[in-house]
Amino acid sequence: MTASAHSARRAPETARASLVDVRRGGQALGGSYLYEGERLVTGWHSHDLHQIEYAVAGVVEVETATAHYLLPPQQAAWIPAGLEHQATMNTAVRTVSVMFDPRLVPHPGDRARILAVAPLIREMMIYALRWPIARAEHDPVADGFFHTLGHLVSEALDHEAPLSLPTSTDPIVSAAMAYTQNHLDSVTVGEVSRAVGVSERTLRRQFRSTLGLSWRSYLLQARLLRAMALFAVPGQSVLEVSTAVGFDNGSAFARAFSQYCGETPSSYQRRISTAPQPLTVSGTAAGQQA
Predict the structure, then answer these.
(1) What distance in Å separates the CA atoms of residue 92 and residue 94, rounded to the nearest whole number?
(2) b/e per residue 196-215 (b: at least 16 CB within 10 A)
(3) Is the predicted pLDDT of residue 3 greater than 50, yes or no?
(4) End-to-end CA distance of the chain
(5) pTM for this structure?
(6) What torsion, rounded to 10 degrees, do the Cα atoms 141, 142, 144, 150 define?
(7) DSSP code of 23?
(8) For the segment 9-21, what is each residue's pLDDT rounded down to a tens digit?
(9) 131 with 101: CB under 8 angstroms?
(10) Residue 60 in contact with residue 90, Cβ under 8 Å?
């Protein structure tokens, strides 16, 4: 799941993404693994299994051919089987992933999504750590568990959080998006148009025709997603974050953030900065699957 919100983009058609066999030759219908570590960029790949990844701590970014997703703490990313994607596990990330044989999840869709995960699904994902996806042995109890969890996840796919930015294969729009994300603290449409070598009018028109939204709407969404990522870094104040993403007025930032996220910046920061509890299964710390 990317190096940063402004990472270099590889068009999927220009290089073949690797197919990762997370079962390592096994036949498990479902299983899980825990990731804990420093920053990691996976490279472009796909799986033959569906994946749901819950962020316990830290921020994960997921990029596909059509969108760039932010996975903040206490939410989950859904990645259907066969979807080419790249992920960045930023510093101090801790995630739990559950993999499903495609037969277990009705109506998986064909795109990635960020989901607001119900407590029941979260607890079942943590419980699932007792069954690593790469295990060799067949377990009918595990099969029944993952059948049930798969149906719950299928229902949860309707509860999508709007935490993504569009991507584009248009060279001008793609370059303008990259420049915008690299200069969120002070960027203007005039600077972007000069950087990509077109007039402001042309830039605005191409954003509209290619993405279906204005450059200013893209800028606002990019700033708010970056703010959500920054809040996951310990020690950042609301004022520091708002300034870093280009807001001169704290009230304007709080208003925009609340409208986009459904809660105030301070409330969001308190919620995601709560120290994560050790992940346990039957009183024992969960092990890590590479």
Answers:
(1) 7
(2) bebeeeebbebbeebbeeeb
(3) no
(4) 15
(5) 0.81
(6) 170
(7) T
(8) 444 444 567 988 9
(9) no
(10) yes
Averaged pLDDT of the chain: 87
What architecture does CATH give domain 12-164?
A: Sandwich (2.60)
Q: 212-261: per-residue pLDDT in tens?
A: 999 999 999 999 999 998 988 888 899 999 999 999 999 999 999 999 98
Residue 5 has pLDDT above 80, yes or no: no
Domain 168-273 CATH assignment equals 3.40.50.300: no
Which amino acid, one-letter code, is at 254?
A: A
Quickly list DSSP for 133-175. TT--S--HHHHHHHHHHHHHHHHHTTSEE--EEE----HHHHH
Two structure tokens written together for 46: 């796909």
Domain ranges of the chain: 12-164, 168-273
